[in-house]
Each structure stands twice: as structure tokens, then as C-alpha cells.
Amino acid sequence: MRNFVIFFGVAAIILYGIFVFDPINRIVLFNSTGTLDEQSFLDLMVGSEIQESISTLERYRFERQQVEISDRCALHRVDSADSVLVFRDYSWRRGVVCLFVQDQTLIDVSWTFQPLAP
């Protein structure tokens, strides 16, 4: 019985470490909805070329969905945006990340995650 408890404890610590060290999992746990003007999100930076931002999200396995001629997405609005690029995470995290673009430059990011949502 003692060996089982030790094994279970070590396994739980390892799984927790793996889970928390993933940057997207940390966002889901501690900041599931937000905007870039409030804090950082992955490696995205305001003022960067939009292609850099797209590459960053694709590296984290987000799937590009569409380009919208809009100024709002994921509970956030940016009046000066020319368009919004929408990316989805179809894993258990169920997330949406929106890149607000003006003149091919990233001007803001918003995200929302709803873990285990249908």
C-alpha cells in the first residue's frame, strides 16, 4: 500500500509539472480570457509583422480559421483594426485567439479558453 501511495504521489507531481510547464496550459489555468494590452500572450508583441505572429500561433498548434473585416473578436473590440485573424485550439482547451491587424502589423490580441467545452 505504501508503494502505491508513493508511486501515485510521484506520478501526480510529474503530471502536474508537465501540465503547468506548457505555456498554453498556464494561460488556460490562470488567465483564460484576456488581451495583449493587459499582459503578454505567448511570444506575441504589438508592432510585429503579422506573419511573425501567425508563425508563432502555428508553432503552438493553433489552426487559422478565417480573416474577418471586423473590429471585435473574443469579447474584445479594437476600433482601429483593419481586420481580425481568428485562430482556434480544438484540443481539450477549446480556445480562440484573435489577432487584430492594421497595415499588416499586429496591434492587439485577445483570447478566450473554455476548457472541456463541447
Ordered list of secondary-structure elements with their pairings:
Blueprint (H helix, E strand, L loop, with lengths): L1 H20 L1 H8 L2 E3 L14 H10 L3 E6 L3 E2 L2 E2 L5 E7 L5 E8 L2 E9 L5
Secondary-structure-derived class: alpha+beta
- How many distinct helices? 3
Cα shape: elongated
Low-confidence stretches: none
Computed over alpha carbons, the radius of gyration is: 17 Å
- Indicate the mean pLDDT: 86
Order of helices and strands: HHEHEEEEEE
Would you kindly provide a written description of the structure presented here, covering whatever features stand out?
With 118 residues, this protein is α+β, with helices and mostly antiparallel strands. The protein has a 5-stranded antiparallel β-sheet, with helices on one face. A two-stranded antiparallel ribbon has the order 3-4. The protein has helices spanning 2-21, 23-30, 50-59; strands at residues 33-35, 63-68, 72-73, 76-77, 83-89, 95-102, 105-113. Strand 5 (83-89) and strand 6 form a beta hairpin.
